[in-house]
Write a structure and sequence with these properties.
heterodimer, A: 341 residues, alpha/beta, Rossmann fold, nine-stranded mixed sheet, six-stranded mixed sheet, 9 helices, elongated, B: alpha/beta, 10 helices, globular, FAD binding (chain B)
Chain lengths: 341, 348
């Protein structure tokens, strides 16, 4: 087949990074990104973009570690280059604090982030309600800059991008040879995945430029993540809540919780409230599938269900999905040569 | 009782505040006056980035290490107070980089989380093979000096914009004690060949993605002669100049090039940073801080002078410890003048 036509559905961090990986691994492909939303209106734009992994219960740990390591290594190189500010990638140090000592004191990612160690007694004095903590340095991907940077790289690689709402993958079968499904929460409707559920997160984005360090409560509910221009204060984890409207009571609660970790936030200005639905699943679906309808076959590669770990795992899952696209192409080329016989 | 403070940098203002806090209740007649030719934002303290970090070695001067510690602990105690933002006070972490292993500094247990850099971290800084990571404090002069000024004004301390040419000028007319915090220009009031300028030049840039301080060290060139990057709350400071004996406060193109090129080499993302300013200042360098009493005879009168100057490139780092020491000297002067039966407060 001359030039396989690949459609990537979805333009959040997963869709764009997967599309970029495909252009890198299959230079002969023509890649098109289709999405009803682009930055700054994707779920990714709401997220802080911190590289602190979420553990998926049903994905083997070694696979999660591989995904995280590939993502961290990729971003680490960009963070120290002249492109860093445009890409919105920067190092940030800080603390994860726990009210009671966690069962697992060494998370699987502790040797991938930088300088991971237990907090000292002196450091814990700053958090009188917390008894244990971890200090480390990790990376942050600020959005929209990161998504816009991915879009720019895609355009340079000849990728077309169109605003289009895809309601059925079969809509695309006449125009494209392979579909890559990076629709995040949209996969629930698009492919009828009932294992996918929203976990609603509300965050505040504030102006507090003196906050240079991140602080995260180990329960995952309260966090302070300083970005390039704004600090993200969070948050909530509301399983099954589909509402995208900010809740005023929640805003007050998030602000109070963050101020108790970092009192200087009382002076924060320009508070902006945002809501996103983490596309959550027991395991990330990175998988090949061949759909069949009336004798017509449609190869699909799925890459969705990253929940709270989209940024942390994006490049690793994108690499894997691109590899699966390569397998689809080989299969198509194999069958087309068979058909010629 | 009248006290004249000469100098309105971090040393003058903090010593004044410390003395007023400790003694105004005990000496109702206490009147403080601050005299300076430069006030914030035109003092040396305003140009400094504001990072709390002493030099690598105290050369056996344990007194100075103690003053540094007192300052750090004092500031750490204020970190959670509502005043912190107004003071320009916040936590910051960062890197000290070397081309060879060095002994740990005397302040390793004062800062938080001091540790050596891991090999992976050193990959970020080609050319450097050893280093430290720790969490310290920023105290931005542009905010701290106005905060100190407001506290002093609330206490009724008066300010006079005047270049003081001699101790006589302020000590006549009922002034009992002179607090000499004149920094670089102390030599104009009383010759001091040990006080020399340590000229610095910095470039201010907008680089809000930089969240860590990075200080490199070249043991052969000496302190601050190697690039450093210090992110503040409004802009990031790039530096790396220390010229002993150079009195010029003019920006030099050659120094600009050195700072810019070496900082961009150290941190490539800085190539995209926007330059928003440049500044040169004179660190009031001295082999040790001059913090002592002196009785000066001026005609028929005797004035007590408390000298508190010569803090080099660590004025902000050491200021509160020195202010406390100056206050103790003040207390002993009061005792001698029998204004007080016993000295106030615990002695360190």
């Amino acid at each position: 087949m001359a030039s396989p036509k690949v459609a990537v559905v979805g333009a959040g961090v997963i869709g764009l990074s997967t599309a970029l990986c495909i252009t890198e691994t299959c230079p002969g492909c023509s890649v098109t990104v289709l999405s009803d939303q682009f930055s700054p209106n994707t779920t990714s734009d709401v997220a802080a973009g911190m590289l602190i992994p979420h553990t998926y219960p049903d994905t083997p740990i070694h696979r999660q570690k591989q995904w995280f390591k590939e993502t961290f290594t990729y971003l680490f190189a960009i963070s120290n280059s002249a492109e860093a500010s445009e890409a919105g990638i920067h190092l940030v140090s800080g603390w994860q604090v726990f009210k009671s000592t966690p069962k697992e004191e060494l998370p699987f990612w502790s040797d991938i982030v930088l300088g991971f160690r237990a907090m000292s007694e002196a450091e814990l004095l700053k958090f009188p309600q917390h008894r244990f903590g971890q200090a480390f340095t990790t990376l942050k991907c600020d959005c929209p800059p990161y998504l816009l940077w991915l879009e720019k790289r895609l355009k340079a690689a000849g990728t077309q991008m169109y605003t289009r709402k895809v309601t059925d993958l079969w809509e695309l079968h006449s125009e494209y040879d392979i579909i890559v499904n990076c629709t995040g929460m949209g996969a629930q409707q698009l492919v009828g995945d009932k294992q996918l559920f929203p976990v609603r997160g509300q965050v505040l984005k504030v102006h507090a430029p003196w906050v240079k360090q991140f602080i995260r409560d180990g329960d995952g509910l309260t966090y302070i993540y300083p970005g390039i221009h704004r600090v993200t204060l969070g948050g909530t984890r509301e399983k099954g809540n589909w509402s995208l409207s900010p809740d005023a009571g929640t805003t007050r609660d998030i602000f109070d919780r963050c101020c108790s970790l970092e009192p200087s936030l009382q002076g924060a200005q320009d508070i902006e409230v945002k809501v996103g639905l983490r596309p959550s699943r027991q395991c990330v679906r990175v998988q090949r599938e061949v759909l069949s309808q009336g004798g017509v076959k449609l190869p699909v590669v799925h890459n969705y269900g990253h929940g709270a770990g989209g940024f942390s795992m994006h490049r690793g899952t994108a690499n894997e999905a691109a590899h699966l696209v390569g397998e689809c192409i080989s299969a198509l080329q194999g069958s087309s040569s068979t058909a010629k016989l | 009782m009248r006290v004249a403070v000469i100098g309105a940098g971090v040393i003058g203002l903090s010593s004044a505040l410390c003395i007023h806090e400790q003694f105004h209740g005990l000496v109702p007649s206490l009147e403080l006056e601050v005299y300076a030719d430069r006030f914030t934002p035109h003092t040396t303290s305003d140009g400094a980035a504001g990072l709390w970090q002493p030099y690598l070695s105290d050369h056996g001067n344990l007194q100075e290490t103690l003053w540094n510690k007192e300052t750090f602990d004092y500031l750490l105690g204020h970190l959670h107070s509502p005043a912190a933002k107004e003071m320009g006070l916040f936590l910051i972490s960062g890197y000290n980089l070397f081309t060879e292993p060095v002994p740990d500094p005397p302040w390793k247990n004062i800062v938080l989380g001091f540790r050596n850099l891991t090999p992976k971290e050193l990959e970020l800084f080609p050319g450097y093979s050893y280093g430290w990571f720790n969490t310290a404090l920023m105290l931005e002069g542009r905010s701290y000096l106005p905060w100190l000024t407001n506290r002093l004004m609330q206490r009724g301390v008066k300010f006079f914009h005047k270049k003081v040419e001699s101790f006589q000028e302020v000590s006549g007319d009922g002034v009992d004690v002179v607090l000499n915090c004149s920094g670089m220009r102390a030599g104009d009031l009383q010759p001091d060949p040990e006080l020399q300028p340590g000229r610095g030049q910095i470039i201010k840039v907008l680089a809000p993605w930089v969240k860590h301080f990075i200080i490199t060290h070249d043991l052969k060139s000496g302190i601050y002669n190697s690039p450093y990057v210090i992110p503040g709350s409004e802009f990031t400071v790039l530096g790396g100049i220390y010229q002993h004996g150079n009195w010029s406060e003019e920006n030099s193109a050659k120094d600009h090039k050195f700072v810019w090129d070496s900082c961009c080499r150290l941190l490539p993302p800085l190539q995209k940073a926007k330059i928003v300013g440049e500044w040169s200042g004179l660190r009031p360098a001295r082999p040790s801080v001059r913090l002592e009493r002196e009785s000066i005879r001026l005609g028929n009168l005797q004035a007590e002078v408390i000298h508190n100057y010569g803090h080099g490139g660590f004025g902000i780092t050491i200021h509160w410890g020195c202010a406390l020491a100056a206050a103790r000297l003040f207390g002993s002067i009061l005792q001698e003048k029998q204004r007080l039966a016993t000295p106030p407060g615990p002695r360190l």
